[in-house]
Fold these 2 entries.
Entry 1:
Amino acid sequence: METDEQIFTKMIQQHRNLIWSVCSSYRLSAAWTTEDAFHEVLCDLWRGFGSFDHRCSERTWIFRVATNTMISLTRKTSNQPAPRLTDSPDRPDPSDNYDHLTELIDTFPEPDRTVIKAHAQGFSYKETAQITGLTVAAVSMRLTRALRKLRKQYNQ
Amino acid sequence: MKDMHDFDQQIKAYSEKLKATRYPYGDAELNREIRRAVWNTTPGTIGPTPKARHRWWPYAAAAACLAALILPLGLGSNHSAPIKNINIDGEQVYFACNNGCSPEGTIETFKTLIR
């Protein structure tokens, strides 16, 4: 019989890349590293693990918790100086326009920002609806509008 | 039309890079992080907060103080037994209990012991 901690550990091992990806896609103040954010997300996941009812997939639940933690951290540290994305060595390869797009997406209000990031991570409309609490139709509409707005800003 | 195609390509590249992001540490580090998160968030446990994790020295200092207090008295000895012999040499106290142990310590620790 596995303990909760053993089940939790297996789940995190399986989804470590997703968690790290979410953590590294937000800009925090210079005092926070991706490792710090990763630890905060793990703490929140463990706090919520007991009440996880499996109504959505583990991947969807993890993305939702990680995103909410990162939004909360971003708000908390918003009055502190933020480093440029390229200052951090643990982010994905900053070639092409990855940084430019990340900076543009970061300027979007919630839940549009989460809808775009969930779309980029490959979540379906239904899963994105479970993540954001919106309806599937609302997700579709918001994503279309947000991408249109992003394209406009990107081409300027 | 060209702009739209270019943008779609960029979004696709952004998405691929996001999905290709890998946790940069090994299994051992990950398991340690998980244990630390569980330890820090389980009620009733005391642990350093994430931002204090590099401040290990208060814990080391507390452990050193505790060791300095306990070790001279002989950890695990039964000092509830009557003391049969006391020898005070300056600040240092040597004494023997009826159960055979013969710890030593400073006068202050000796006072704490017999209190």
Entry 2:
Amino acid sequence: MTTKRDFRFGYALLGASLSAIGLAGTAANAAEQITFVSQGGAYQQAQTVAILDPAAKKLGITINQDSIPDAWPAIKTQVGSGKPIWDVVDTPTGNCLRGGEQGLIEKLDFSKIPNGAAMPEAYRSPYSVSYEFYSSVLSYSQKTFPKDAPNSWADFWNVKKFPGRRALRNHPFATLEAALMADGVAPDKLYPLDVDRAFKKLEEIKPHITVWWTSGAQSAQLLNDGEVDMEMAWNGRVSAVAKEGAKVSFTYNQGILQSTSLCILKGAPNLETAVKFLNEAVDPVNQANLPLNIDYGPGNPKAFDTGVIKPERAAQLPSEPANAAKQALMSYAWWSSPAGEAAEKRWASFMQK
Amino acid sequence: MLALASPALLVILLLIVLPVGWLAWQSIYHDGFTLENYRRVFTEDIYWRSFALTFEISLAVTVIALLLGYPVAYLANALPKGWSILILSLVVLPFWTSVLVRAYAWLALLQRTGVINQLLRYLEVTSEPLALVHNTFGTVVATVHILLPFMVLPLYATMQKIPGDLMQAGASLGASPSLTFFRVFLPLSLPGVLAGCTMVFVLCLGFYITPELLGGGRTVMVSMLVSRNVELYNQFGAASAVAVVLLLSVLAIFFVVSRFISLDRILGQK
């Protein structure tokens, strides 16, 4: 997750080719197996403990793991070659939808995925089920704002009442949503985004933005070193900085709730097993174990009813129902629509003006 | 001779010519022949702005590197052997540190709570921290630091070949030290100046990590457009068209420079 949405194409290719070499050696044994791909690091480690190992044990299958910062180019290349190596991928939900439309991702039969079928409709698509949640939140330095901290995007935009240096992500995802909320749009009335209005509002704050950050690590450093007084950042990054002793905090109010989802590559070598795994991966108890190992929220909201997550812990998580109610749920369907793609292209010229 | 060179040629063919050729091919072929990627590069504002900014930054970096590098090379050339070895080692030393680490080091120095701003405020030179980084200024400073050796080394190599007798001859004819420098030494060192400037300028055109980390998101150089385009258009072609235009600009620069000075010289031979 540390590299979520960071794009390092070289690694992508390297990862794909390494996995090709690695798997050639291990194929052709074990009764049932799948290859599962996520984003590596502490995040994948947490999944292994919470979800992958229990699922493998219960289903009696072998789960081979691979990791890659951005799966999208590899999905394209693998399916394009006609012989994909991977089965199940954990990737930002937009990739699953876009891949579904382009014939790169299998359509799911939810009758075989009862755990997924029981999830709210906004948490799944014909091609994917939500796997975990994170949020783009308003974070701030408690040194600069010991009380009366900024609590909404309107506050972030209010440079008179809340003087200080600001940073936003150098990407339209969540940033356009924040601009619209600052302009008075309700979190549940955002989509379809009024792109013109959002960019107009962004022009207003632009002179006051010190840094447009590009990686999660950078956003953490800015906050940690006091380089900015408030910024949009991913909740896990802010809590990690706070855990190390920096006086920083954030609010879930008007956060933009984002997710990664599980989806299956078109023509996956172990399709049937992959579907079985998918069901097990979003099992409420397995899902409830995830936030015990890392600061991300379960993709299946039923996880909060299992009793596995203590109330104090639940209150810290982005997808906990009360927290979720304060936030806007990102519409990946909109972002992968032509209007969304046009907005993404418009971002570059906005940045350079 | 050809037989001896062929393994090297093969490596170059496999690792440079083929991939670059493949990328160039992708820029004009995607489900059929298309010039769409180039149309975009030549008609959309953002590309023009990025190319202009990249050339401006490269020019600034080259001029600053020359002003800083010339005296260093001069000193290394003029001083006794022991000193010149020390100076040159100091010039080359940063080579062993990764570009990434050096970018972060500059961040630690230049940022609001960084060493320089703290010092300036402690000495009461400034009351507010200066914006030294997350802008073009910070990018230029760090880039100059990284590219300085590429200026100093060609200059030093050229200066080494200027016979010391010429300076003595000038002095014996009654010229002042500064006159000898400007009329004799400087003109003879010009090939080194050209070589160093070309190296620094061309290398700077392709800089990626430094502006990405120190530019604050506003300093969008051409290399950043390349990576952005892969993400935005989900195909290599859109990105490689930008890379091809940049590559052609570099080759054009080398071509023009080669009219004045042999390429061997820029790349450090002879």
